[in-house]
Every structure is written in C-alpha cells, then in structure tokens.
C-alpha cells in the first residue's frame, strides 16, 4: 500500500472511529483446514522472497506468472502491469494488487566506492541503517551493508543512507557490476511464527497478489456473469503509476474496481487505537475509507452481503494510505477496496495471519462469481 | 519450504540460517576470491558458523556446547568457560577469546502474548553499548531461545502509514530503547508463549544473518569477537607443536559487571607466565553489520600459531 505521502489525491487526515463488523462467525476461520493454509503459504512464500522495488518488478512478475493456473492467458502492458482477463460481457470488474515493494535506488557512486541512494516509497529509514544490503543487478545480487551513522546518536532518524559493497573505490564498485539506477533492498525471508502467523518483508502487497492468484486458481469460470480483469500492477508505492496506466487504458469501461491491498492495522500495543484496529486473524477488511478513496456506503453494504452469503469473514474499517483503485475513480469507476490486516507495515518484519490470506482469496472469488 | 524447515530443525543458539549462509558464503567466496587455500576455507566456515551463534553474556551455554563438540577433550568449568590444554611443562601460558555478547532476556510475558525485554550487558563496568544498540531491534526479526529450541519473533514498530499527520514539525525524535521493545511471536496469549517453551530469562538476540561481501568481509553482530574466536579455533585445529603448556580458553561473562569468566580460568588453571587474548579490528562496531576482514583473521591464525610454538 502506498504511503499516503505519495498519493496524489489524498483526502486529508481524516480520523474516524473504526467500525468493525464481523460478517461471519469468528470461529469459522479456525475451522479452515490446513490445506488452505498450506496453499496460501505455498503461493505467498516465493512471492515474498522475490525482490521488486518500484520500477524493477520483473522478478516478482515472473514469479507471479509461474503461479498462474495453466489455463490463464496473461499479458504484460507497456507499463509492466500483468493482466489476466476472465469471462465476457458487462459490467466489467477489475481487481488489482500491486507487485512492487519499497526500497532504494542507486543515484551515485562516491570516490570511496560507497553508493548514494534515494528512497522508493515511504518508510522509516532507520530500519535499514546498519543492516545487510543487496544491490540488484541484471547479473545477480551484490552483497553489502547499509552504513551506520557516524554522528547524531541521540536521534532516531539517521542521515541519508549509503551502502558499502566493500569495493573501496568507485572504479572497483563499477567493476563489480554496480551502477546508478539499480535498486537496493536488504535480504529477506519468509518465516512462520506461532500458529498461522508469519513474518517477512513486502507482505505489502504480496499478500494481495497471492490472494488474486489463489482466487483465479479456485475460480468457477462457468459462474461468471461478466468479465473480470485481474491486474498485478507496478510502481504503486511511488504514486500508483501502474494503476494509472491501466485505468487510462480501460477508461469508462469498468463498473467497479477492487484494489486488493494492505489494511494497515493498529493491532499492536504501540499503536493508537482510535482507528485502523482490524485485528489480524479475523479475516479480510473492507477498506471503506483511506487517504485516497471513500467507498460509497451502499457498496460497502453490498460487499458485506457478498461475504455473508459465502460465509467469508470480513471486517470493515478505515486506515491510512492510498490504493490503486483510486486511479480508476476519475473515469466513473467505483472503488471498493478489499484489504487484509497487517502489523508493522513497510518494515522488515511485517506480520500477517495466513487465515486472512485465505479469507481475502475467498472474498475475491465471491466478488468475481456473484457480484 | 526450506526456510521454514531449517528454522524448525535448528536447535541451540544458531538461528536457523547457517545452511543458507554457508551456501551464500560459497557463492560469494567463489565470486570474489577464486584462489583460496583450504585452510582459509576452514577459517571462513568457522567464522561464519560462530557469527551465526548467539551467546548472551552469562547465558552462553549453547555456544559452549557447540565448542565442546568441536573440541573433543575440552572441558567446561563451573563458570561456563571452555578450556583445553595443549602440550605440557613450562612455560605455562594462556590464550583466551571471550565469546559472549551484549543481548537480552525475556523480562515479562504479557497476557496478550507479547514479550518485554531486559538488556544484559553493555550497561555496566564491562562495556557500554552504543546509544543506538537497542534501536537495531526495532522492526526486525529476533530469535528467542526457549526450552524447546529457537523461536522466531519480531520487535514491533509503528506502521509508517499510521504515523502520518501525527507528528508536528519539530517533534522530538528520540532513539528507540529496550523499554519500547515489544516482541511479537505471533502468539495471542501468555499460555501460547509458554507452550512454545519460552519463560522469563530466555535469551533473545537479533536474528543472526551473517553477510559476506566485498573481498572476504564478514558482517554480523559481534563479528570481530566471533572471527577472533574462529581464528583461535582454527589455530588449535592446526595441531600446533606448542612450547611448554598452552591453555586455550573460550571465556564467558566478559561483558557483565566483571570479567568473571577469565578470572575463573586464572584462579582454576593459573598462574600463567603469559596471557594473550584474540582480537581483531572491526568496522561498524556494535552494529548488526560489524565487519571484519577475514584476511586479518588469516594473519591472526598465523600469529597465534607462532606464539603457541614459541617461534
């Protein structure tokens, strides 16, 4: 999910009390069999362990293509978005999750061989300070470290970060394959926590991408009454750029768009509890209001009805950030975002509950087949 | 799911990335240092292995067990030091390497399953930790060493999206301290935490992810100490023909209120005619990417061997 700072049409800092609604019985999720959890993990883990800073999503897109059902015919547009069209007829409905993740881009190489960086997306830079780094090149990843600060030890926020690849000089760094424009992240790993929970980096929005893949795999194509377009978008974190291209291409054709993206949750002892408190493990979330869009209440009600009819757990709430669907609204398309609760968003240690991935996939499938 | 199975299989204080890190080591070493001596490879593997381990000061048992397995015939004294005696006669000399590190223990388990921490070491007479030492935990994975093995968790951090609009310009920007560290194991209750084998006093550390980069540079928490201990271990494995008696001691509790481990070795096995301690220069000290040049460790091995053999 884009940091609200990068969303062009932010609606401002509206703080509303959260309205949480459980459309399904809470114990329904605990009755889900381990096969569903295993399926969610089998799709999610390889996506999480692929690297794709905004503008360099190729490895994630290729991983997603490998996970598509065999019948799916995909195409990649000039922006880099991955499309799969299913069914025929109107009204056209779009579901869209983004492939990219936050990170850095190399802007220069100093005489001493250290790399100057710019951020791609919004995040707390101290989380990368003095940690292992990876420079992503066409020939493979080059290991290094994010330099620790050498002054300002009383401040949480570090100076602009640089990376040391151990070269010692600009010439040696370039000989090793480093060049401006390449992207930089830190090593990441998908790790299971207690119960059905897991941690990793870039769950935002690999969970949304995963849910779309699982929904496609499980879709009853014969049940579709209209065309549904599944899009895996690029450059969301730096201003919803891939979605803007897709929205322009489709124009006024779609009736609804469902952005499938993070519901940044305050489900943590260090967050304020006045909104965004959808707990993890209690299902998908109707993201009724964020910094980029407000869903018409009647559409929220309809989404809740779909969830009830299919027995899928759904929470309703409001959080911060922007979503890809908001790029479609200028064309008269209604944005009905569906999220999934995430702790510690845009950090190296995001935490999810796999039950929510299952719930989210079921919601997407239900929306495609019945709404 | 390789990553999961390795995490689950791993016991002791290695946090489950050793196999993967070793593979990375092979990749990077082959990329950057195509001509290597066999002994260098052994040293690199030892350094990587030691850097993957956790030995919170005063709670070094698991690393001690690993060292004892590495050196059949070694002994563990009551303080926890691992010692082995090479040669016989005089002079009687001691070569030490402190293996402990500043770390954390579980200080409290909250009803909702979150853990609170207490720092161990780094605040007393032994050594003062960097003001940013605790901040390295924020938003990162940690390993909790419970009675049933290593358990992964993360330290909570505010979601960047939810900070939006909540801090006015000029708002104080204090560093993160251990008092703000809430560890999330994915558990929902204290009972679930206890079911994982975790209780108050369980050791906790940043998840160890040793990184090899550049030309045999090793980055990891306490990489300097671990590479120095690896050099000492490599020297012992080279079976030196020592002059007189050399006691080798991997010592504990060097970072708490007193250097109790070393004091114990001196009291139990001394007096010694000479005492040396393995040490290596490190860049980015006290950070998660403390960096040592393994070429320096090569030199240290040679120096230790010369000293042991009286050359």
Distance between the termini of chain A: 25 Å
- Strand/helix succession of chain A: HHHEEEEEEEEHEEEHEHEEHEEEEH
Task: Write the CATH fold name of the domain at 103-162 and 172-206 in chain B.
Answer: Elongation Factor Tu (Ef-tu), domain 3
Compute the number of structural domains of chain A.
2
Can you tell me the CATH superfamily of the largest domain in chain A? Zn peptidases
Could you state the CATH homologous superfamily of the domain at 103-162 and 172-206 in chain B?
A: Peptidase M42, domain 2
What string gives the helices and strands of chain B in order?
Answer: HHHHEEEEEEEEHEEEHEHEEH
Helix percent band of chain B: 25-40%
Separate helix tally of chain A: 8
Instruction: Determine the fraction of residues in helical runs of chain A and give it as a percent range.
Output: 10-25%
Oligomer: heterodimer
Number of strands of chain A: 18
Write down how many β-strands of chain B occur, each being a DSSP E stretch of 2 or more residues.
14
Side by side, the strands of the main sheet of chain B go 4-5-8-7-6-9
CATH architecture of the largest domain in chain A: 3-Layer(aba) Sandwich
Taking the alpha carbons of the first and last residues of chain B, their distance comes to: 52 Å
């Amino acid at each position: 999910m884009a940091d609200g700072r990068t969303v062009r049409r932010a609606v401002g800092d509206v703080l509303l009390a959260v309205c949480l609604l459980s459309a399904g019985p809470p114990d329904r999720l605990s009755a889900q069999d381990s096969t569903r959890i295993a399926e969610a993990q089998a799709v999610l883990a390889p996506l999480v362990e692929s690297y794709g800073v905004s503008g360099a999503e190729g490895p994630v897109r290729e991983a997603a293509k490998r996970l598509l059902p065999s019948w799916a015919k995909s195409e990649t547009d000039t922006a880099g978005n991955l499309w799969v069209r299913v069914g025929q007829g109107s009204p056209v409905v779009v579901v869209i999750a983004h492939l990219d993740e936050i990170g850095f881009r190399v802007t220069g190489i100093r005489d001493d061989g250290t790399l100057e960086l710019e951020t791609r997306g919004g995040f707390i830079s101290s989380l990368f300070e003095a940690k292992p780094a990876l420079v992503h090149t066409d020939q493979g990843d080059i290991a290094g470290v994010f330099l620790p600060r050498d002054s300002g030890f009383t401040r949480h926020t570090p100076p602009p970060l640089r990376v040391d690849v151990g070269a010692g000089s600009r010439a040696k760094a370039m000989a090793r394959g480093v060049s401006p424009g390449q992207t930089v992240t830190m090593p990441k790993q998908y790790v299971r926590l207690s119960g059905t929970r897991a941690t990793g980096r870039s769950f935002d929005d690999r969970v949304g991408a995963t849910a779309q893949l699982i929904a496609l795999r499980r879709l009853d194509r014969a049940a579709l009454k209209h065309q549904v377009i599944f899009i895996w978008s690029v450059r969301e974190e730096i201003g919803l750029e891939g979605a803007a291209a897709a929205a322009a291409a489709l124009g006024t054709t779609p009736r609804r768009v469902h952005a499938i993206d993070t519901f940044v949750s305050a489900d943590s002892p260090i967050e304020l509890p006045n909104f965004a408190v959808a707990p993890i493990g209690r299902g998908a979330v109707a993201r009724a209001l964020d910094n980029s869009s407000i869903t018409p209440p009647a559409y929220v009600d309809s989404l809740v009805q779909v969830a009830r009819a299919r027995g899928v757990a759904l929470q309703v709430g409001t959080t911060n950030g922007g979503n890809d669907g908001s790029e479609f609204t200028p064309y008269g398309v209604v944005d009905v975002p569906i999220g999934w609760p995430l702790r510690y968003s845009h950090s190296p240690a995001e935490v999810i509950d796999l039950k929510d991935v299952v719930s989210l996939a079921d919601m997407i499938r239900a929306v495609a087949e019945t709404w | 799911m390789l990553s999961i199975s390795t995490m689950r299989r791993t016991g002791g204080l290695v946090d489950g990335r050793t196999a993967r890190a070793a593979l990375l080591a092979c990749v990077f070493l082959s990329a950057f240092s195509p001509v290597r001596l066999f002994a260098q490879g052994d040293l690199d593997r030892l350094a990587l292995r030691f850097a993957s381990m956790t030995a919170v000061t005063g709670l070094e048992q698991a690393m001690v067990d690993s060292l004892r397995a590495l050196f059949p015939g070694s002994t563990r004294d009551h303080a926890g030091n691992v010692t082995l005696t090479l040669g016989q006669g005089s002079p009687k000399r001691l070569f030490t390497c402190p293996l402990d590190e500043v770390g954390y223990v579980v200080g409290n388990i909250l009803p909702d399953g979150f853990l609170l921490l207490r720092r161990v070491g780094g605040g007393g007479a032994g050594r003062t930790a960097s003001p940013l030492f605790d901040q390295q935990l924020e938003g990162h994975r940690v390993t909790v060493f419970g009675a049933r093995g290593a358990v992964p968790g993360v330290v909570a951090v505010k979601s960047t999206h939810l900070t939006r609009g909540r801090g006015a310009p000029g708002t104080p920007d204090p560093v993160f301290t251990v008092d703000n560290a809430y560890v999330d194991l994915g558990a929902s209750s204290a009972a679930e935490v206890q079911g994982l084998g975790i209780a108050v006093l369980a050791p906790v550390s940043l998840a160890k992810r040793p990184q090899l980069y550049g030309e045999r540079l090793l980055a990891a928490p306490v990489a300097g100490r671990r590479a120095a201990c690896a050099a000492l271990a490599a020297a012992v494995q080279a079976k030196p023909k020592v002059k007189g008696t050399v006691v080798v001691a991997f010592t504990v509790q060097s970072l708490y209120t007193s250097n109790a481990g070393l004091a114990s070795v001196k009291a139990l096995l001394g007096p010694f005619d000479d005492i040396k301690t393995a040490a290596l220069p490190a860049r980015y000290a006290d950070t998660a990417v403390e960096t040592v040049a393994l070429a320096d460790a090569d030199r240290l091995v040679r120096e230790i061997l010369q000293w042991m053999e009286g050359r």
